[in-house]
């Protein structure tokens, strides 16, 4: 269920955005659809998800109808600030979206299409647990307009999956990829490295297995220990060891090299694709700071410098919408130094990099030192952009501090 929601400014029951907020026609608009259901809770997971015993009256079978109510509310809110924009990207995340019937996901996507329209060539992604993927499900999603599936592989090594409390059969990953391919969908697989007891040899086996699946895209995320998770409690109790920073660095260097040799290009610190056309356009929109509306309990949204987040529990979310009220819990305006920090933090992570003129003038002298420390590509810097080297990607937080802190 994740940690507590951050505090912020109050949101009116109507959900109306602050005066002066504008829907800029030249800024892309994306949609995130959160499906907060899981069969079991993974020990490392800090996402806003719920198993059957945690729903406290919320219902999976009516969830799509509830979310469609928020889509209707968003139409009213966004109509008040300017012309509506067609969605360039749609992303079903979770949780496990494919725990819902494919027909429910199709209805949710239909609600987005009917309300805002989908831009020509829109990217529509569904996250999937390998055990919930069948040829019939993939075919129904493709017919509904889904273009891409992201499969939660995490590892191919059974004891690593067990350490992460992942219950899927690793053999089902290949079956899921084949089903998605048969339906004509682009395929991404997600990996996690640094699990308790995972060796470099284990990680190398998982990366090679992922490459053999021949997906279009691979995400490789370092395991992060989040407060409040089962894994955090186990580490505090000394039951398992905390991730080793040096080992995780070795794992990153291996995956970066192996994927490069296999024809994948990095385009964000943890994301690799076979050419630009297979990059996740939805995730790139986050890193570039464009506009999106996040639907569902705990989902975050951003429009024209205002960010807000919904109440967390599915029951509270449904109650707000049934009463005709916005499910937003609080919001904030991103400006000043906070906007600068966020821009540097996000844009420095992507391959196209950060324009040096976006760095505070007092910190631009730090660029020379970052080049000398082999954290920033010198050629890109000469052309006015900060692009991280492999070493820089390993030390991305240090680069951000150098570019923002006086």
Automatic annotation (TrEMBL):
A cellular component term, taken from the record's GO annotations: cytoplasm
Database matches in Gene3D superfamilies: Aldolase class I
Subcellular location, record wording: Cytoplasm
InterPro entries recorded: Aldolase_TIM, Coproporphyrinogen-III_oxidase, Elp3/MiaA/NifB-like_rSAM, HemW-like, rSAM, rSAM_sf
GO terms, biological process: porphyrin-containing compound biosynthetic process
One Pfam family named in its UniProt record: Radical_SAM
Keywords: 4Fe-4S, Chaperone, Cytoplasm, Heme, Iron, Iron-sulfur, Metal-binding, S-adenosyl-L-methionine
Domain Radical SAM core, first and last residues per copy: 23-265
Signal sequence interval, chain numbering: none
GO molecular function: 4 iron, 4 sulfur cluster binding; coproporphyrinogen oxidase activity; metal ion binding
Keyword rRNA processing attached: no
Task performed by this protein: Probably acts as a heme chaperone, transferring heme to an unknown acceptor. Binds one molecule of heme per monomer, possibly covalently. Binds 1 [4Fe-4S] cluster. The cluster is coordinated with 3 cysteines and an exchangeable S-adenosyl-L-methionine.
Family statement drawn from the similarity comment of this UniProt entry: Belongs to the anaerobic coproporphyrinogen-III oxidase family. HemW subfamily.
Protein's recorded name: Heme chaperone HemW
Organism encoding this protein: Microbacterium mitrae
